[in-house]
Request: fold
Amino acid sequence: MTITISKSSHEKKVARFDNWWFLVIAVIALLLILIFLVPDPYQRIFVFVQNGIGTTISITGISFLLVLILGLLVALARLSKSWIIKGVSTVYVEVVRGIPMMVQLIFWYFAFPSVIQNVGKWLNIQAFIDYRANPVAMAILGLTIGYAAYMSEVYRAGIQSISRGQMEAARSLGMTYIQAMRYVILPQAIRVILPPVGNEFITLLKDSSLVSVVAVADMTRRGREFQAAHFLPIQTWVMIALLYLVMTLFATRVVAWMERKFKMEK
Amino acid sequence: MEPIIHIENIHKHFGTVHALRGVSLDVEKGEVVLIIGPSGSGKSTLLRCINRLEEFDAGRIVVDGIPLDTAENINAVRTEVGMVFQQFNLFPHLTVLDNITLAQKLIRKRSKIESEKIARQLLEKVGIPEKESYFPGQLSGGQQQRVAIARALAMNPKIMLFDEPTSALDPEMIQEVLDVMLNLAKEGMTMVVVSHEIGFAKAAADRVILMDGGQIIEMAPPEELFDHPKEERTKLFLSKVL
Reply:
């Protein structure tokens, strides 16, 4: 209702404003209402899972940055002329995409340290024998390796969508392959891949809840702990779900805003 | 005097297609050479071998004393050889000015001020000084191609290669591009042009080459080749084009 009214009153300005922000505001409002009007149990739940929110955000943020870098390197490797580089990167993508994220995370936290320790015993390296896995580091490692495989495909599609003539023109001016990528191909590819990259971010944010199985105290794990202690399943999981929803809806709007910004510049 | 472009017995295969069958050609400094021929005759492939956009399977090319062998030499040759494409290939995310300054800054290591000064002089030269802050998508085909020529010239090339520069243009825009090319020829630029613009050939070319089936069939000054062709295949091709 409010949307249509404001649209007619000052049309041009509102036409640019993304109305879906109202949904984000509505979910935030619902959260605040629950926390402040029904403090028992919602405020208790919120206070309990609070540090989990930070963990979820930082694990997602750091992993995503690393995914952006590793994904690009893998995409370039897959486009390489060398069949070895191409082969290795293709095997990586196919293997990682074929194993469930949860299994990968469990591997990195439980199995990988054992591998290191056994290698240490075998080669008699004390530092390896004493190796203990840091849950947060392993979670970030697992998410990065898993998601970089998907991200590399997004990059690859974006790079391949730019006409061959662009690379040829850049190279004919004497640019190296890296310069041509950096200044000609990637700036154009970014416009193409922004929506799927945003999508990957949101999926990563949600899948970060999987790290709760490898001893990381993220939002999901804190929720499980609260439920175990107080047995309020409905209230606990409504709260956790709303917290994830705020984050994903917010991220969706930011991506949509960036898309519009890029389009306008063009 | 050493020829500025020396092409020796070049062979090129695309899968099972033998696209170039032992082509040899010398181009002198300041010469304007026009290559004509039916589609699939290998003329564009030959042109693209000169700056190694196309790899060749056998033979040797030496440009301005630099053999096209190592990656370093290939890049050195590319900075001396400007290329203009049928589809312009301007960088759509950059303004006209940035299109012309990008490679100057990266490869010639010129300052922003210096490269912009050169870019503006060249835009003046190709007749569109007022378009410097436009994006390529806002220009007509003829204007885009003139920007592409300016972009190549900004690197101070010793040789300019033109790959069907007017084929993608509307008829009324062809002349504005040809005029720029004619001026370049008059200034003594070494040019190799793949094109069927007979008028340009007669006005500016020193030699015209007819290619067919990956080979040079006939090579002669324009008036001779167009008016008194020796080879049957040349006559046949000209009867279709003229």
In short: The CA atoms of residues 186 and 204 of chain B lie 8 Å apart. Chain B has nine helices and ten strands. Chain B has a mean pLDDT of 93.
